[in-house]
Amino acid sequence: MSGVNASTLWYVDVDDPTAVLRDAASDREAAQALVVQLHPGLEVTRVGDEPLSEATELDEGEVVVGCFSGVSIVRTGESLPPVPSSLVNQWISPTGFRHTYLYSSSSVTGAGSWGVFAHWDGAELKRSFSATPINIVEDLGLPQVWERPFWAGEHPMQPSVDVLPDPQTLPFDPAEFAEAASRAWLGEDLDPASISVSRFAIYPAGDIPTSVRRLAEREQERSKRRSLLTRLFRK
User: Fold this and answer.
1) Residues 160 and 218 placed together within one structural domain of the fold
2) What confidence category does residue 3 fall into, taking pLDDT thresholds of 50, 70 and 90?
3) Element (H, E) at 136
4) Which of 38, 43, 129, 191 is packed most tightly, with the most Cβ within 10 A?
């Protein structure tokens, strides 16, 4: 899941998410209902479907969601707080599933990468971490077993040849650390390319975004072609 400039939340109520997600079809109606629940008072329109692996860039006011049996995925370009413990309650277990996992990373100009991950068991925050290479923003809960190699310096950052290393630099890349959390919690064999999600536009009533206008234009064009074909076959 590297290269994603967005935040991803996983709502999980099964022991093996990978098995559930393998070639499963997302429930589009449940996905739209979840988007509505997370964004009360806004209009929601589904603008298309795509693999999770391709949903790496989200325009303002877009979210991608997949709902499966015991697993729901929400990826948003919305600015979630860099301190996971301050995440608003409506984003924590909106599906009623037991576990909520948060993963996010991005590049930080002049400071390398930024990475964040968190785990809630029900409403209880069990572990959270957020940092740039030289600044830990949040580090709550007991470190997990899978974290040991990172803290032991077994995954060091590659230093820039033209920048002197800061003496406070962490012994790992925060973005890589966050990706490792995702694998540890969701499974090493998780394949984003095989997970189908739906992209939704979220907007105030009357303020229709370009993506929805384009969708309406495509639907209108398809309707015209169907009408033309129907008339041709009737002759």
Assistant:
1) no
2) very low
3) strand 135-141
4) 129
